[in-house]
Amino acid sequence: MVPLGAAALRAGRTGVSGMRVRGWSGRSGLAKVDLYTRGTVYLLVWTALVALTLLMLTRPVRLGAHPAVAAGAPLLAVANGVMSTLLARRSMDAYLGQGRVPPRLVGGAAVVAALAAGTALWLAAAAAGMEGTLPMALSTALVPFLTAHCLIVRRRTTVLVHGGLLALLGVLVPLTGRNTEETLFTLGTVAFSIGWLAFTARVSMWTLAVMWELREARDVQARLAVAEERLRFGRDLHDVLGRNLAVIALKSELAVQLARRGGERRALEQMAEVQRIARESQREVRDVVRGYRGADLRTELDGARGVLGAAGITCTIGSPGNGPPIDVLPVEIQSALAWVVREATTNVLRHGDAAQCAITLSTAAGTAALTVENDGVQGRTTPGRPAAPGTGLTGLRERLAALGGTLEAGPAPDARFRLAARVPLPAGDAPGSRDGSRARPATENDHS
Q1: pLDDT surpassing 90 at residue 372
Q2: Fewest CB atoms within 10 Å of the CB: 41, 287, 381, 391?
Q3: Residues 359 and 342: beta-carbon distance below 8 Å
Q4: Residue-wise over 313-326: b if at least 16 C-beta within 10 A, else e?
Q5: Is the four-CA dihedral 439, 442, 446, 447 of positive or negative sign?
Q6: Does residue 62 contact residue 77 with C-beta atoms inside 8 Å?
């Protein structure tokens, strides 16, 4: 079996198990490809099964063969298809690293396929009117098993198995009364059938495995972007607190030594300095947290484009007209809308299978409006129907409600999802007003 990376194995497990409970419209693009690829392998197996069964029901078999063979041959063809289908299912899972194929299943499917091929050879020799059907009968008897078997062995093993089988048929086919030309034609037909279909199945599953690996790589990129932001926050905290805490420790130790030696006045001076540094550290930590939690709108828009781009999602940021006047929006409205952008970005990454995301910011009629719309929505969607409430959306509604704003989230046409936030602007900050060109400066209460 072709070894796959651990990333592809995890992706295969989660993706395939998740898609089994959803309908076609609720599957992601990769899940649809997965279903299509597996269905193609099953189609190869069952096409051969149907052809073999029909051959076993033809008039020469019914009238020219022994009654037991005439009755058992179609049942053997069906058994061959059933065993090969079970083997194909386990083989595809094993190829994607989702389990192992029981040796008993492989052996049982091989025995049934051998019996089916042997029956085709016997009928070609004993039943009149079956002379021209031997190439098709052998091909349809062997294709179901070999198509599944090639997925659990290496390419070299597949070539050896096919070569050995053709060599064996080269001995058995002439025993049915075929001349050299007919024998070569039969061997050529069988070789092409089993070789081409095995190649098709293997290449299809290899393509699917590569797609799962690419999907996992995209998810890793998104997680790395989040991890990078966490590292930035940790680095900022270290830079702020590291030096100040070291100074506080040294000055506190110095104050203790001075107090023991009777220098109370100098000890008090050192402790006053410690108090000043502690307050300064508190202010600096608050600034760092404000930058991380205060959610600056322009920063969040740039961050959304970067994070979504790292996840392979095209993010466009625009607005009608000449562009949204972000700088003239009041600080509290910028912060609230920035939280909307952050939560919407998280939802796009965690839910659905988006390929495109559009963020639009506009100010009109005394209202600041932010709309985030993405495709790749999983599950059945009904435009106009509100989405199920979540913790993040509930928190956003509370933030916007404090400013008199509203939040709407739900499916949109063409399998898209739309999140729209609207916040009324103060009279002095509305576009076109006399004072609308300058935002109110931030205060300590804005971020406490």
Answers
A1: yes
A2: 391
A3: no
A4: bebebebeeeebbb
A5: positive
A6: no
| Average pLDDT rounded to a whole number, residues 37-59 | 81
> How does pLDDT run across 345-371, given as a tens digit for each residue?
888 877 767 888 999 998 887 889 999
Measured CA to CA, the distance from residue 317 to residue 42 in angstroms comes to 45
Mean pLDDT of 311-329: 72
Tell me what pLDDT residue 310 has: 64
| Whole-number Å distance between alpha carbons of 339 and 330 | 14
Q: Mean pLDDT score of the chain, rounded to an integer?
A: 77
Q: Are 207 and 37 in contact (CB under 8 A)?
A: yes
Residue 330's nearest CA partner among 213, 418, 442 is 442
SS (H, E, C) 378-440: CCCCCCCCCCCCCHHHHHHHHHHHCCCCEEEEEEECCCEEEEEEEEECCHHHCCCCCCCCCCC
Q: Closest Cα to residue 2, out of 131, 12, 243, 419? A: 12
- Give the count of beta carbons closer than 10 Å to the beta carbon of residue 279: 10
DSSP letter for each residue of 350-385: HSS--SEEEEEEEEETTEEEEEEEES---S---TTP
Q: Which long-range contacts (CB under 8 A, 24 or more apart) does 274-282 make?
A: 274/248, 277/244, 277/247, 277/248, 277/251, 278/244, 278/248, 280/244, 281/240, 281/241, 281/244, 281/245, 281/248
Give pLDDT tens digits for 293-307.
555 788 888 878 877
Domains of the chain and CATH, by start: 6-220 (no CATH), 223-293 (1.20.5), 297-446 (3.30.565.10)
